[in-house]
Design goal:
The complex is a heterodimer of chains A (199) and B (679). Chain A has 199 residues and is mostly helical. Chain A is built from 6 helices and no strands. Chain A has helices at residues 11-45, 55-58, 61-86, 90-120, 129-162, 166-198. Chain A is elongated. Chain B has one domain (42-523, 530-590, 635-675): Cytochrome c oxidase-like, subunit I domain (Cytochrome C Oxidase, Chain A). Chain B has 19 helices and 2 strands. Chain B has helices spanning 17-39, 43-51, 56-87, 97-131, 140-162, 187-215, 228-260, 273-307, 314-327, 343-371, 380-402, 405-411, 415-445, 451-477, 493-522, 564-570, 592-608, 612-630, 641-657; strands at residues 584-587, 636-639. Chain B has a two-stranded antiparallel ribbon. The chains are: A mainly alpha (199), B mainly alpha (679). At the A-B interface, α1 and α5 of A face α6, α7, α8 and α18 of B.
């Protein structure tokens, strides 16, 4: 596991961080199962529009493309922050975390807009099994992104006040795993939910 | 907005004498605990040394205390059902249907989620780090969160007896009945939130133990030198990590249906109720193995120790455990053959179900062959093990019968099924955990449990079990549906009366367990475990003192073989005094886990009663605590070498007083490790 290049940490601490990273991977796997089941549920229910709106009626390509662009870009900027982290450049880490935060917040803003628009058109989650499954799957992802945004803020605070210490760097690495994981989930949402719905 | 949500004064149980007395017992029980702590002036000790502890041994003990309390509550439910059914021929009995339904729902929920799961987590916490030669689990603080969130779930269970009514939808809460259309009110919401919260805690426990066993083993402790109990916890952790998400999704979606008008499982607007049942059992079947594998682990340890022999077929036992773990994800549909899948689907799952009994059979033969030509010492844990072997095979056979879809169509939802799964879970899970409780009790507290009362408890449990459950097989074949509140067929009643007698005998077993504990505490000075190795044990947990020092091992053991401790005794390197000690870094105690648990419980209660402001407040407290804790880089302290030396010196002083081998006087004693030739 990469940590800050010129930082000396004890063997025991290194082991500790490795345990935490491994534990976090396990959490991500378990979370991936949650998403897998939500995807399966969505696929079962996508046809159950119950006379209400179907995927074609409610998805807007422009908005989804914008959401995708924001989220993928935020993964890139997080990558830049991680490079700055291993170079030990505190200012740059803060800057790129801030950019990542703004991109992620933009994604959430668009998603909330999407949801609000659908609900206003009478295509809320109470309308049909299809919409229940859609809101739950995409909403769960959105909830994760929101938690990730809070986590970015906390980590920015830690970098600002504590500097790039070994524990802070270790936490940032796990935040990175989380953030990229959400990106992968979004790619699957795009391919399984939006793309077939729009085609 | 109403600040109390849908909570009103009518939620208190003054509508029924039986319900009110249940509530009174719960409230008085809580007050008695508070009173006892105050009376003994123990608040400071409880707060600073127990509830704030991140020591895996103390967390383990608290888990098991929770499990035993909930065992009593779950047993009371069972006894009430047996009594009702014994008398309810052509009359209403003493329980109205609505109340009877709550009781069978809470019985199953308690026994699975708040008796068996905490018992499992407790034994794992107590023993696994010591068996692998580690000083703690990988994430001690997360361990504390798991404990207190599980307790929060159990707390909601107890509160449901006092405030509002519990679910009437059974422990599985199948829609559409569990949907808001057919079951309004808070009962199902109680069930959902307590399961959701404690499921979260269990997932964290699974992650914790998988990392611990993977990363924290002592030098030389390779995977194929791990004691069997640790192996079973390892596989159970894998199952937890992959199966519990299904429960989380099932609960979350049903919560959305009930509280926010979603249509996942409703009867109209495109709901699909069978999806819930698939999701639930996608968790539920692995859950059966999550519960039973650790019990298999306990039996493996016990049978080898008390047969005074190496475990027969170690590798085959490990492989069987892994095989069961994998196969457990391929059989869930056998819980609902009657859903009406095609014959092909049903026969696939029927076949897989028959196949999964093969590795289990391998294990049974391994245990038998461990006993073969061993010199068996009949201590209570060993009695439970032998009782398990005999009884479990009967349950397994009825399971193979139910695995045949045509048979299952006949037996579905009859008490034949009830008899079958109790026949697996009581000997398989409960006997295993009780054996573990009696086997490892000295390790936790430094004195042995009374064997006479342990033996009595065993005989009451096993005889009571047969008398209580064999009639249910017969009744099932006579067509008696499960969960019947009253009935009009005279032929059923005699069997139900016999089953009631069985329940009374099990009650005697419960009393024996209580007496055993009390007598053992009173007479503890006559049964002190000075050596830390009361059973002439084979695995590393017997290398530590009883109770173990906070750091377990002052010097990490070097493992060279399976049965590491036996091997060390054989080579004469056990109890070696190290030349010097070193500083040990330990996690600091913290109240953060307790705060998160309490806030989690308040969140659940608020969500059940629609007090959304309070739910948000509780979530904010949880988030704040986690952020505070995640920013605290000073969560460890150093125990200096001189402090360690002081503890270890006392330990060696005690060892000098201890008998060299506490089992040497037992009839059938086969000689100590030092006399055994090298293998």
């Amino acid at each position: 596991m990469t940590t800050v290049a010129d930082m000396t940490i004890s063997h025991r601490d290194a082991e500790r961080y490795e345990e935490k990273d491994f534990g976090f991977w396990l959490y991500l796997m378990s979370d991936a199962v949650i998403f897998a089941l939500l995807f399966a549920t969505y696929l079962i229910m996508v046809g159950n529009a119950a006379g209400g709106p179907t995927p074609k009626d409610v998805f807007e390509l422009d908005r989804v493309v914008a959401e995708t662009a924001l989220l993928l870009l935020s993964s890139t900027t997080f990558g830049i922050a991680a490079v700055a982290l291993s170079a030990g450049e505190r200012g740059k880490v803060l800057l790129w975390l801030a950019v990542t935060f703004l991109l992620g917040a933009g994604f959430i803003y668009l998603e909330i807009g999407e949801f609000a628009g659908m609900i206003a058109e009478g295509a809320g989650p109470q309308r049909s099994g299809f919409l229940s499954a859609f809101f739950t799957l995409v909403g769960t992802h959105g909830l994760h992104v929101s938690v990730g945004l809070c986590w970015i803020l906390v980590m920015m605070g830690q970098v600002y006040f504590k500097g790039i210490t070994a524990p802070v760097a270790s936490r940032l690495m796990r935040l990175g795993l989380f953030w990229h994981f959400l990106d992968i989930i979004w790619v699957v949402i795009f391919s399984v939910v939006y793309l077939p719905g729009l085609l | 907005m109403d600040i109390f949500g849908r909570l009103t004064i009518d939620s208190l149980p003054f509508y029924s004498a039986v319900a009110a007395s249940g509530a009174a017992v719960t409230v008085l029980g809580g007050l008695a605990v508070v009173g006892a702590i105050t009376y003994f002036g123990a608040w400071r000790m409880v707060m600073t040394q127990w509830v704030s502890s991140v020591d895996h041994k103390k967390i383990g003990i608290m888990y098991i205390m929770l499990a035993l309390v909930m065992l009593v509550r779950g047993f009371v439910d069972a006894a009430m059902m047996r009594s009702q059914q014994a008398i309810a021929y052509n009359n209403e009995g003493y329980l109205p249907p609505d109340h009877f339904d709550q009781i069978f729902s809470s019985h199953g929920t308690i026994m699975i989620f708040f008796m068996a799961m905490p018992f499992l987590s407790g034994l794992a916490n107590l023993i696994v780090p010591q068996q692998i030669g580690s000083r703690d689990v990988a994430f001690p603080f997360m361990n504390s969160i798991s404990l207190w969130l599980t307790t929060a779930g159990a707390g909601l269970m107890l509160i449901s007896l006092v405030v509002g009514k519990f679910s009437t939808a059974g422990w599985t809460a199948y829609p559409p009945y569990s949907g808001v259309q057919y079951t309004p009110g808070v009962g199902v919401d109680y069930w959902l939130w307590m399961v959701f919260i404690s499921g979260f805690a269990t997932t964290m426990t699974g992650i914790n133990f998988l990392v611990t066993i993977f990363k924290c083993r002592a030098p030389g402790m390779t995977m194929f030198r791990l004691p069997l109990f640790t192996w079973t916890i390892f596989i159970t952790s894998v199952l937890i990590i992959f199966a519990f998400p299904a429960l989380t999704v099932a609960c979350a979606t049903l919560i959305l249906d009930r509280n926010f008008g979603f249509h996942f499982f409703t009867n109209e607007l495109g709901g699909n109720m069978m999806n819930y049942i698939n999701l639930f059992w996608l968790w539920g079947h692995p859950e059966v193995y999550i519960l039973i594998l650790p019990a298999f682990g306990v039996f493996s340890e016990v049978v080898s120790t008390f047969s005074q022999k190496r475990l027969f077929g170690y590798v085959s036992l490990v492989c069987a455990t892994i095989a069961i773990g994998l196969l457990s994800f391929t059989v869930w549909l056998h819980h609902f053959f009657t859903m009406g899948s095609s014959a092909k689907v049903n026969s696939f799952f029927g076949t897989m179900t028959a196949i999964i009994s093969v590795p289990t059979g391998v294990k049974v033969f391994d245990w038998l062959l461990t006993m073969y030509r061993g010199r068996i010492i009949f201590k209570p844990p060993m009695l439970f093990t032998i009782g398990f072997l005999v009884t479990f095979v009967i349950g397994g056979l009825s399971g193979v019968l139910l695995a045949l879809p045509p048979v299952d169509y006949m037996m579905h939802n009859t008490t034949f099924l009830v008899a079958h799964f109790h026949n697996m879970i009581i000997p398989g899970v409960l006997f295993g955990y009780l054996a573990g409780y009696m086997y490892w009790f000295p390790k936790a507290f430094g004195f042995k449990l009374n064997e006479k009362w342990g033996t009595r408890a065993f005989w009451c449990w096993i005889i009571g079990f047969y008398i209580a459950f064999m009639p249910l097989y017969v009744l099932g074949m006579l067509g008696f549906p499960r969960r019947m509140e009253h009935y009009e067929i005279a032929a059923w009643q005699p069997h139900l009366i016999v089953a009631w007698v069985g329940a009374v005998i099990i009650l005697l077993g419960m009393i024996c367990l209580a007496v055993q504990l009390i007598v053992s505490i009173r007479e503890r000075n006559e049964a002190l475990d000075l050596s830390g190795d009361p059973w002439n044990g084979r695995s590393l947990e017997w290398a530590t003192s009883s109770p173990a020092a906070p750091y377990n091992f002052a010097v990490l053991p070097k493992v060279e073989s399976r049965d590491a401790w036996w091997d060390m005794k054989r080579r004469g390197v056990a109890y070696e005094r190290p030349l010097e000690y070193e500083d040990i870094v330990m996690p600091k105690n913290t109240y953060a886990g307790l705060v998160i648990g309490v806030a989690g419980g308040i969140f659940g209660f608020a969500a059940i009663w629609w007090m959304w402001w309070l739910a948000l407040l509780a979530l904010a407290v949880i988030a704040g605590t986690i952020i505070y804790r995640a920013s605290d880089d000073d969560d460890e302290f150093v125990m200096t070498a001189s402090e360690v030396k002081e503890i270890e010196d006392a330990r060696f002083e005690q060892l000098a007083k201890a008998p060299k081998n506490e089992m040497a006087d037992e009839p059938g004693y086969a000689g100590d490790a030092a006399a055994e030739p090298a293998t």
